[in-house]
Amino acid sequence: SFEPRIAPSILSADIAYLARDLERISHADLIHVDVMDGHFTGNLTFGPNVVAACKRVTDIPLDVHMMVSNPDETIDWYLDAGADIITVHAEASTHLHRTVSHIKERGAQAGVVLNPATPVGALEDILADLDMVLVMSVNPGFGGQRFIEGTYAKIERLVSLCERAGAHPRIEVDGGISAGNIERIAAAGADTFVAGSAVYGAADLNAEIDRMRALAKA
Ligand code: DX5
Ligand code: ZN
After folding, report:
1. 53-109 residue pLDDT tens
2. CATH second-level architecture of 5-217?
3. What predicted TM-score, i.e. pTM, was given to this entire model?
4. Complex ipTM value
5. For a designed S-S bond to 194, which of 2, 132, 174, 199 qualifies (C-beta 3.0 to 4.6 A apart)?
6. Where are the domains of the chain?
7. How far is the CA of 194 from the centre of ligand 2 (A)?
């Protein structure tokens, strides 16, 4: 199994002070960047210029979560901007195999995201090609939502599917994660944890990142 990684989401940062808010999470393993197009989700956030801006001020790998309807047409913008990991939604990419191959050919890591209602079986034929699977534990669009309880069992089903396929992707979970539930999410089989409001809402952001990582290890 993998060492746990904490990926604070800059959706919860003060974007007017982005450089400062990146400095405040220097203990992060990944920086999670939520790209929303106002169409796939009812919110609109960061374009490739924001990814490039992050790249200028941090060496921490950028984990770019593409919540867009046309990932096949837009992922190159984010790869050009310096994305280290790109995750695309299974619900949005018509040619997932081609998209994943393209991301890897361009030297980045590739992941596929599942919305809460999308079954893990949707990944059966692509699993061996993936660096990561991202399981949404909220309906995407906004920070600060409540963790959907059915996600624990879903992670376990994904772990079984990976074992049967002999595949070893990282398993990331996104939405409603805090120090209060990260142990149980890790026990289900996840190793990469996105946290927006829990990290940015803490008094000492780096201390909270370290605390969450330690809990995930326990
Ligand atoms: C939700 C985003 C998440 C969000 C998580 O659509 O994909 O990455 O930032 O925020 P919290 O941790 O506050 O649920
Ligand atoms: Zn996200």
Report:
1. 999 999 999 999 999 999 999 999 999 999 999 999 999 999 999 999 999 999 999
2. Alpha-Beta Barrel (3.20)
3. 0.98
4. 0.99
5. 174
6. 5-217
7. 7
